[in-house]
Amino acid sequence: MTAIWTNAAGARLTHAGLIHQMAPAPAVLLGERHDRADHHLWQMHVIAGLAAHRPVVVGFEMFPARLDPVLAEWVRGALSEAEFLERAAWGTSWGFPSDLYMPIFRLCRDLRLPMVGLNVPRALVRAVGAHGWDGVPQAEREGLTPAAPSPMAYRAFIFELTGGAREGRAAKSADDPAFDRFLRAQEVWDRAFATHILRAARAHPGAQVIGVIGMGHLQHGGGVSHQLADLGLPGSRVLLPVAEGDTMPAPGAADAICQLPRQLAATLAQG
Description:
eight-stranded mixed sheet; 8 strands
């Protein structure tokens, strides 16, 4: 797969050079748009490259943490693909076709890379968004702690990502208190993903944890990497894919960006 890597300063890197730079990080967070097959193929290549340097654990936004025993059975080779997807309740827990992700899942099984779920029930996200952490009983918090307040750059990114200032929207700017409720919900996911990445790191000493996560949770020094640092695991790195010709993420969005060839997306779309 021919691709062009650039670091945060805009300098070009080779794929091998990028993998070498990322290998020492305690966690590497791979962004995606969930419906993009080329993004998932890119993730698979990066995971394979990092796994060649050291032991890795792969965490997925697509699975709640309660399904870790099912993921372990899959990696162990105890389940067929159909059994795996049924036991993981793929049809109801994630709204995107399994074919987009199966190459990554097969890679983890073939290389015996441990897989963990990073998500929590949506009901918790809604409850914290509506009532804040203090309004949710301790027993219903899924073992999470309150999220660290997001940096303004991330807050502004999420505000614009969700439509910015527009007619009918209560919040008129990123620092408007009316935006707090939505951001609280976003931060629950960020904190959940970070919490489960930290647990995986502690359960597999010396391993690097790779997160497969929607890119909206990763950019501009906020999101998952910010929550990881607050939880005591600094130094995570964020990598993002972008198709050739698409709008590049803003400066400072990630540690490195991989520009994918446009024909890759076109070829995958054709089946």
